[in-house]
Design a protein that fits this description.
Blueprint (H helix, E strand, L loop, with lengths): L5 E5 L5 H10 L3 E5 L2 H4 L4 E4 L4 H10 L3 H9 L4 E4 L1 H6 E5 L11 E6 L10 E5 L9 E5 L4 E5 L4 E6 L2 E7 L2 E4 L10 H13 L1
Parallel strand pairs: 1-2, 1-3, 3-4, 4-12, 5-6
Antiparallel strand pairs: 6-9, 7-8, 10-11, 11-12
Length: 197
């Protein structure tokens, strides 16, 4: 891999364009991923927000579920926001029927924990490893992390709840940094991908 990692954005649902822009601003070569052959060409992957049940069903429909699990299990860097956090959890509290996860982070996540769409909010969040002060977090029907296992590191909390976690090459946030114009978390993830290269 060159100094410019190729980072995909799972383009089945959610803020795909915003993530592509944020990654490009972090000096990554960003491209949408909808098929297994596109997944095979990337060094890292962002799993955006949206509806976690829908994303898992679409991933299965597009033949991506098992290839995603294999790449994540093999150590491909992955970053999930909001629904992406739910999909990277090894366990979900109150999962919808038939809902599957990709796994990768030893954590238990509660769906829609911060409330419904009309209870969305923004908040300044201190994230360990991100310099320059707090990031602006946009919380939209956001999950939170109930608990983490020994391998996972809590890197941010808000209101007494865990909202960002890292485990080796996997990163997850409850909130949407791609909606703020502050691309420091995407730059942090791009560095994670470079470190693996």
């Amino acid at each position: 891999m060159s100094d410019t990692p190729v980072i995909g954005v799972l383009a089945l649902q959610g803020d795909v364009r915003e993530h592509l822009i944020a990654l490009a601003s972090a000096d990554a070569l960003a491209r949408p991923v909808r098929r297994p052959e596109e997944l095979a060409e990337v060094d890292g992957l962002v799993v955006p927000g949206g509806e976690s049940t829908t994303i898992s069903k679409l991933a299965a429909l597009f033949g991506l579920l098992e290839p995603l699990r294999e790449r994540i299990g093999a150590g491909m860097p992955v970053y999930g926001t909001c629904a992406g956090m739910i999909l990277l959890a090894d366990k979900i509290l109150d999962p919808r029927s038939g809902q599957e996860t990709l796994g990768g982070i030893d954590m238990i996540v509660r769906r829609n924990a911060f409330g419904r769409q009309n209870e969305s909010f923004e908040a300044a969040v201190e994230v360990a490893g991100i310099d320059g002060g707090p990031v602006e977090g946009v919380f939209i029907r956001a999950p939170w992390v109930e608990s983490v296992g020994a391998g996972a590191q809590v890197i941010a909390e808000h209101g007494g709840h865990i909202v960002a976690v890292r485990q080796q090459n996997a990163l997850a946030t409850s909130f949407h940094p791609e909606l703020t114009g502050d691309h420091r978390i995407h730059a942090y993830f791009t560095e994670m991908v470079r470190a693996v290269g």
